Model the fold of this input.
Amino acid sequence: MLGTLLLMRHCAGPAVVVREVVHADTVTVVRVDTVVVEKPVPVRVVERRMDTLLFERAGDTVFVPVPIAQYQFRDSLYALDVSGYGVSLDRLEVYPRTVSRTINTTTERVIKDKKRWALTVGPGIGYGPHGVQPYLGVSFGFVIWSK
Done:
């Protein structure tokens, strides 16, 4: 009986076949821009401490106070702090990287229409010369309704 039901289901086929195929593409673009800043000007100078330099001249010793300052250079692309005496920044190069990643996903949906014609094998009750009795038969027909 179970074999008959499975055969009936197999011959009739599924009501609707839905198949999804997913395609994904990943595109990565890395862009490196070179930003060159010539002779940037400090935006802030803060004196941190005083150092003393020792000079000897003609047998005489001279102590010279030297201010040590912190110089801050700022822009929208960089931040730089330098400490020392009379510091100047001649050139600054910055290499910012921009990474763009694009993922394109395409879903293709294929829907196959219902199978309407079916070949089935199954038990039933039939009426014949010996009256009402069980029967096992093969039938071919058009499916009007299915799940």
Notes: Helices lie at 2-12. The two ends are 21 Å apart (CA to CA). Residues 12 and 116 are 8 Å apart (CA to CA).
